[in-house]
């Protein structure tokens, strides 16, 4: 069994014994690190294909790729006994990525992951996970991700805010459509095979229903990566290489689906939406000059 699969099993076993929102909860101080190694050529090629990144013989790693390499470390932390939130039901709410310089596939990348902070959220408690990647001791890439554990809060006891596609559209920029993508029903299984993230909500309608979803849902990190592949436009894009990204995950994509990628003319702000105006994510990027 892979380390990530073992973490998912451990998370399923330990989650019922954890109580989100418990006063005085603290995060583990551990920092987990993988040995420095270059990207495996076959794995990198498969990741590029499933996410729509160009596949040149040479070129920097996709901006989201170090997150995938380090995700088993994050799961090991979040499923540990001293992690205060149950991993079952955690919702990835946002991610920020900063590339300090392009990382080439042949460079020995050393990822480190740690839990940074717990914050109150109107729908529960959110943890911020940090990933850093170094080459020869130099910090070349870093990310921060928010994961929400839902539970009853005082904020939820008040009047409920408007919900649904109209409210989501009102919170998202009105960007012109650029591309339409048809996502197959097995996308979650295919991306899970590459990323190692075989969370049941992504694999089959039956297993997704156990967690309250009518069908399997696309991985949030796949939707973010697919949007960045479109925003990047390949190594010849005149706007420059992507250096930072901020993505807000707003609503799951039920598979199969047809979604629309929308962006401003410069490609610096983007959104993913479906029929009826439902917004699945919004994001912004900056580029190297």
Protein architecture, described:
The protein is of the alpha+beta class. The protein is built from seven helices and ten strands. A hairpin with a 5-residue loop joins strand 8 (257-263) and strand 9. The longest helix is centred in the first third of the chain and has 14 residues, at 65-78. It is globular and about 50 Å long. The termini are far apart. 37% of the residues are buried.
Give a nutshell description of this structure:
With 289 residues, this protein is of the alpha+beta class. The protein has seven helices and ten strands.
The total count of helices amounts to: 7
Q: Note the beta-strand portion.
A: 25-35%
Average pLDDT value? 85
Number of strands: 10
Low-confidence region ranges = 157-170, 234-238
Order of helices and strands: HEHHEEEEHEHHHEEEE
Q: What structural class do you assign from the helix and strand content?
A: alpha+beta
Shape: globular
| Integer-rounded radius of gyration | 19 Å
Major sheet, described briefly? 10 strands, antiparallel
Strands ordered across the widest β-sheet: 1-3-4-5-2-7-10-9-8-6
Distance between the termini: 44 Å
Percentage of helical residues? 10-25%
């Amino acid at each position: 069994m892979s380390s990530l699969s073992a973490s998912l099993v451990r998370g399923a076993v330990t989650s019922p014994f954890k109580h989100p929102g418990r006063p005085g909860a603290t995060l583990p101080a551990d920092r987990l690190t993988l040995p420095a190694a270059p990207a495996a050529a076959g794995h990198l090629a498969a990741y590029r294909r499933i996410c729509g990144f160009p596949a040149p013989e040479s070129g920097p790693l996709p901006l989201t790729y170090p997150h995938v390499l380090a995700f088993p470390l994050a799961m090991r932390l979040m499923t540990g006994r001293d992690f205060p939130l149950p991993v079952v039901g955690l919702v990835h709410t946002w991610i920020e990525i900063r590339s300090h310089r392009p990382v080439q596939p042949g460079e020995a990348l050393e990822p480190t992951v740690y839990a940074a902070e717990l914050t109150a959220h109107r729908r529960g408690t959110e943890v911020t996970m940090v990933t850093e990647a170094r080459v020869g001791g130099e910090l070349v890439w870093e990310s921060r991700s928010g994961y929400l554990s839902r539970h009853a809060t005082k904020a939820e006891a008040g009047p409920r805010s408007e919900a649904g596609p109209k409210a989501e559209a009102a919170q998202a920029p009105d960007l012109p459509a650029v591309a339409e993508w048809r996502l197959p029903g097995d996308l979650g299984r295919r991306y899970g095979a590459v990323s190692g993230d075989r969370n049941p909500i992504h694999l089959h309608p039956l297993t997704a229903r156990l967690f309250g979803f009518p069908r399997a849902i696309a991985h949030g990190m796949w939707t973010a990566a697919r949007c960045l592949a479109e925003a990047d436009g390949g190594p010849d894009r005149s706007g420059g290489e992507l250096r930072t990204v901020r993505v807000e995950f707003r609503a799951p994509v039920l598979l199969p689906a047809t979604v629309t990628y929308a962006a401003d003319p410069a490609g610096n702000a983007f959104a993913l939406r479906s029929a009826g105006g439902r917004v699945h994510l919004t994001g912004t990027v900056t580029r190297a000059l």
